[in-house]
Amino acid sequence: MSTDFGQRMSAGQRRALIERLVTEQGAVQVEELAASLAVTQSTIRRDLSLLTEQGKLARTYGGAMPATVTEPSLGQRTALATAEKDRIARWAAARIGAPDTVLLDAGTTTGRLAHHLRDRAGLTVITNGIPVLTELADADAVQVIALAGEMRHISQGFVGPLAELTLSRLTADMVFLGADGLDPRLGICEASLLQTRLKEQMMARAREVFVLADSSKLGAAPFNAWAPLPAAWTLVTDSGATDDDLAPFRALRGAEVVVV
After folding, report:
1. What distances in angstroms separate CA 238 from CA 114, 124, 215, one per listed residue?
2. Is the pTM above the cut of 0.85?
3. Ramachandran angles phi, psi of 61, nearest 5°
4. Cα angle at 130 between 58 and 163, to 5 degrees?
5. Coil, strand, or helix at residue 207?
6. Least CB-packed of 44, 64, 160, 208 within 10 Å?
7. Strand partners, 206
8. Residue 206 maps to which CATH number?
9. Is the domain of 47 the same as that of 174?
10. 142/98 Cα distance (integer angstroms)
């Protein structure tokens, strides 16, 4: 492929070609794509990030591979396990005191948690999630700090360097995280490395770590990006989880399992 051809391609044509190459080859590397398409590696990384967000491929270390599972939109997630998510959210809300500072991840379960915190005078909530911000937008009693950065439209959460920079200046008493999947060895599974990086930093900035995951998430690994769990943390799940589902988590030293 000539340099002139690469320079004449539009961004949409280039991304379509990248998607086709990933499908045909099974995996591609950033350096190879940049050289063959005559663009910078940063351009390719932006293309891969957008295609990942659109569910058209999955990021790997240094490149991309075909997406085995399409990431559901926030609207699709909202309709799933609604009763279970609300029970989990109510349990979490009961653990939060008015003077606390809490970190709330982006997601539907943390959105429900925010709903149950609307009247907590003196509470400070730090979040990267638009659902949380929406719930607390008119909750005058609650102080809200947004980790604004690059928005992932499909999940309605902010990620990236700007969100990470704001977070690096803050600490919290507790962090409540969601998950697309949860593995006792690998940790929290998400569609994007930017998501898992921010989750990992959230865990490092909080005194207590809670993962809010309904039973369908336990043992699931729909994507290839992971956030390792800390030495001590709490899993909060619903009664749909079987003993077999919970056994690997209960066996972890430092992990507490709560079923609601």
Report:
1. 18, 27, 6
2. no
3. -65, 110
4. 70
5. strand
6. 208
7. 172
8. 3.40.50.1360
9. no
10. 9
DSSP state of 186: T
Query: What is d(CA 197, CA 220) in angstroms, rounded to the nearest whole number?
Result: 19
Co-location of 143 and 82 in the same domain: yes
Q: What is the pLDDT of residues 43-69, one digit of tens each?
A: 998 898 888 877 788 777 678 877 765
Q: Which residues contact 231 (CB under 8 A, 6 or more apart)?
A: 253, 254
Tell me how far apart the alpha carbons of residues 220 and 179 are, in angstroms, rounded to a whole number: 10
Q: Are 250 and 160 contained in the same domain? A: yes
Helix (H, G, I), strand (E, B) or coil at 105: coil
The domain in which residue 33 lies consists of: 3-66
* CA-based nearest residue to 96, from 30, 18, 175: 175
234: helix, strand or coil: strand
- CA distance linking residue 157 with residue 149, whole number of Å: 9
Distance in angstroms (rounded) separating the CA atoms of residues 47 and 109: 30
Q: What is the end-to-end Cα distance of the chain in Å, rounded?
A: 57
Helix (H, G, I), strand (E, B) or coil at 8: helix
CA atoms of 110 and 177, how far apart (whole Å)? 7
Q: Give the domain-ending residue among 66, 89, 112.
A: 66
Q: Residue 235 CA to chain centroid, in angstroms?
A: 16
